[in-house]
Design brief:
With about 450 residues, the chain is α/β, with parallel strands linked by helices. It folds into 3 domains: about 1-75, MurE/MurF, N-terminal domain (Udp-n-acetylmuramoylalanyl-d-glutamate--2,6- Diaminopimelate Ligase, Chain: A, domain 1, 3-Layer(aba) Sandwich); about 80-300, Mur-like, catalytic domain (UDP-N-acetylmuramoyl-L-alanine:D-glutamate ligase), CATH 3.40.1190.10; about 310-445, Protein-Tyrosine Phosphatase, Chain A, CATH 3.90.190. The chain contains 16 helices and 20 strands. The strands form 3 sheets. Strands 7-8-6-9-10-11-12-13-14 form a 9-stranded mixed sheet, sandwiched between helices. It is globular. It starts with a strand and ends with a helix.
Length: about 450
Amino acid sequence: MLGNEAARFQTISTDSRTTKVGDLFVAITGPNHDGHDFLQNAFDRGAHGVLVDQDYVGKKAPVSKEDEFWIAVPDTLRALGDLAAFRRRHSNVSVVAITGTNGKTTTKEMTAAVLGQTTSVLKTPGNFNNLIGLPLTLFGLNDSHEWAVLELAMNHPGEIRRLSEIAGPDLGVITNIEAGHLEGVKDIDGVMAAKGELLEGLGQDGIAVLNVDDERVCRLAKGFSGRVVTFGIHGSAEVSGTPVSQSRTGSSFELNWYDESAHVSLKIPGEGAIFNALAAAAVGLRVGLSMEEVKQGLESMDPLPGRMEILTLPAGTHLVNDTYNANPGSVAVAIQTLGSLKGSGRGIFVIGDMLELGEHSESAHKQIGILAARAGMSGLYATGNFAGTVAEGATGAGMDQKKIFTGTREEIVKVLKDRLGPGDWVLVKGSRLMAMDKVVERLKIAD
């Protein structure tokens, strides 16, 4: 350590643009930026100290001012996690960690809403679900919090293991295991192994809340030595749900827990939302909340932007904004949900590329075209490098070529605006980097 050893810091920052007076600025080296390039910016904004790579100190030989300090470590990203782990273990919170290919964020929000019926809850903000975001979330703990509900994401093996080390979860939820981030984990069995790292982090004393309707999740459960609580629709589960109805404004189901039951009406449509709700309910019921408290928590949950968010345009067209992200599993569920929502109306599917699928990209996109054709879509609009592959899958499954359009986002919007009418249902989906939300925003603007 260099500089004022008596100095103290209030919070931790990894972005010099938002650093505040009294912060410790941690310089992270990422794929696009190196935090060491912004140390002076952090000090200019009032940081009391910086955490830097020891190699940087060796090269730069920094001189600190009287009220500043420098801490050098072998790995600043790991040090950030270690600081967060220290903060977590010196708090009185219990931690729920949630992972899975699809539904993580909605399940996180539902779980926080359920637990929040009786206690103060810290939850992952936005997409702070990685090796930088999770530590920053934990630095938000205060003495009022009794629970922390944390989302864990990954794109390579070992990431969830490290996130679990930092979070120290008491309960772990695995929503499902589908083909996602295959570029980093090779295949779906690699996804299963990566998600299973959460169970390693729970250990014998932890509680695993697992989707009994997912075959790979069940395989993981067999190797877990702690307590397992199951949830599901189609299989035998401790916390089960029987779907009752689907509508434009939401979905409802019967929630069952041993000899108790309750009718739950969600503001979110689709069977996927019911699965997410069951996971959250399983957490709440397992930690002692009443069925009524769980029901109230679930029913208070509003749809999240970009996740099966239903908008009605002035012309009477229904627009389903599911643009937050996409992988083969989530796209398949979205197509299924559109089929139940549209009723006798026309179903129109707008799809951008699904990213990070590696060698599986072509086959996965072709399968999406097949699913769209089999679902009886009245129109298929595809953009991206694999738009032609989606179209090929659709035509191969019998879809009329005249119903298929490939082009840029802008071209799709222009063509769609001339073809949409009252009662049509338009689903827009794609990986986040495809910026399919721009299609949604453009369709919302009346010409």
